[in-house]
Amino acid sequence: MLEKWCREVRTSSKKLSEGVHHNHHMSTATAPTARSHSNRPPSWIPRRGHPLTGPAIRQATLLVLLATRRTMTVPQIHRLLCNRGSPVASTDPHEAIRRGLAIEVARGRARRQGRGRYEAGVVPSSSRYLLADRFPWLA
Prior knowledge:
Blueprint: H1 2-18, H2 55-68, E1 72-73, H3 74-83, H4 93-107, E2 110-114, E3 117-120, H5 125-134
Antiparallel strand pairs: 1-3, 2-3
Helix pairs in contact: 2-3, 2-4, 3-4
């Protein structure tokens, strides 16, 4: 279907460049949709009670640091995430949290205060709102 649409667009644009006029409008060659819309949210949006994976771990840990406004250890962060309904989906959740925080430390959005101790760094207000909107049960 996509190939047919591309072919139609190519031939109609070729005819236009050659000066050949045609009766049908470009609206007949509309792009096909990839899939139908459903009421379910996309799978990459984290939901309360569902385990955190990938970037969601990093974002949730940063939001926890921003919300508590104090230095926290990795086990404290993990405990708080689990208590608020966001378990970490990993064989070693503390290591997953440390890896996520290492990325945030490199970006300047978190600071390492010692071995296994972190606090929030400089986070733009737009990012804070985005994180709070994505994880309302953690904010």
